[in-house]
Amino acid sequence: MTDAYIVEAVRTAGGRRNGALAGWHPADMGGEVLNALVDRSGIDPAAIEDVILGCVTQAGEQGFAFARNAVLASRLPQSVPAVTIDRQCGSSQQALQFAAQAVMSGTQDVVIAAGAESMTRVPMFSNISYHQREGVGVGPFSDRIKQRFGVETFSQFEGAEMIAAKYGFDRDALDRYALQSHQRAAAATQAKRFASQIVPLETENGLHVTDEGIRADATLEGIGSVKLLKDGGVVSAANASQICDGASGILVVNERALKAHNLTPIARIVNMTVTAGDPIIMLEEPIFATRKALERAGLTIGDIDLYEVNEAFAPVPMAWLQALGADPEKLNVNGGAIALGHPLGATGTKLMATLVHELRARGQRYGLQTVCEGGGIANVTIVEAL
């Protein structure tokens, strides 16, 4: 079995809800990322054997073979197939892992893993609202599921509160973490550390190249003034990820493709892990998935130079740090989703683009990425920068 290599990794700058990217159809955003991967690598677009694209809210403009529509909106030939997958917030990270598995097996040599999500144009949960609007059915959780777990629904917001309570985090600790995310993202933007990974998008106000959600002037007092999502809780919109529009993508190949197309890899995939656990607390699973990934890779947390742990809610990376005994100075060094936004299906390959580029910029070796996902699932991907 051969290795899987990353040749290019790109993303758009994030757009706020109703912000700079609100005018972009999500298929077109995805198409621009596909174009950028081809342009930057120099590969013949006809050599691409598949596009695997993550998207969570597959309805409206993100419905009806969304990945295929992204291909049709790009300059790739119509001979390139595509498939849309949903592993919730880890959708495009799973797309990357599926792409890597394809090229490692030799069934395909060149595959693009990508993700796209317009949370402005296709709001969260709009793909599951039909039964509420039309009075048809009971929604995604059947009576059998509800009876098994003793709940009416599974809530990520409740899961975040449960993690905060379990690991002993109060409101002030979460808010301080959120402030750090904005500060790190602002510093990274000022230092142009995102420049090499961003695909510019034309807007009515010019090229969109800067993540729109970063608040360089954020203060602890301002973050602390935001209303809590639950009375008596600790989680607020200010210490949780931002709604975001965006797209991202990674070109994945095997050694045969490297030679055939004269490509230069920028990273090698070392380990791919996915696990599942408690669907109620839900967001704790990255801890257990990371332990399994490190064991299978023959590595320790100390061997990892940088970590990207998705900031769906501040308690998630904070609990991960505490449980793994990890170094906070290696975590989300350029900020995370609290500042940069969390475009759901695009987040997995977005984080990987940031991780690989930062490892190379620092001359470091190993990076680990993990994302918590609805239903109590988590993906972990370990890469080696080249």
From TrEMBL:
Q: Which Gene3D superfamilies match?
A: 3.40.47.10
Q: Which domain of life is it from?
A: Bacteria
List its EC numbers: 2.3.1.16
Keyword annotations for this protein, in alphabetical order, are: Acyltransferase, Transferase
Q: Which InterPro entries does this one have?
A: Thiolase, Thiolase-like, Thiolase_C, Thiolase_CS, Thiolase_N
Every Thiolase N-terminal domain range? 5-255
Q: Which residues form the active site?
A: 89 (acyl-thioester intermediate), 342 (proton acceptor), 372 (proton acceptor)
Q: Which enzyme type, at the first EC level?
A: transferase
May I ask which residue range the UniProt record assigns to the signal sequence?
A: none
- Specify the Thiolase C-terminal domain's residue ranges: 263-384
Question: What Pfam families does the record point to?
Answer: Thiolase_C, Thiolase_N
> Per UniProt, what is one GO molecular function of this protein?
acetyl-CoA C-acyltransferase activity
SUPFAM superfamilies the record matches: Thiolase-like
Q: Does the keyword Acyltransferase apply?
A: yes
Quote the NCBIfam families the UniProt record gives.
AcCoA-C-Actrans, PRK06504.1
Give the protein family. Belongs to the thiolase-like superfamily. Thiolase family.
Return the protein name: Acetyl-CoA C-acyltransferase
- Organism annotation: Sphingobium limneticum
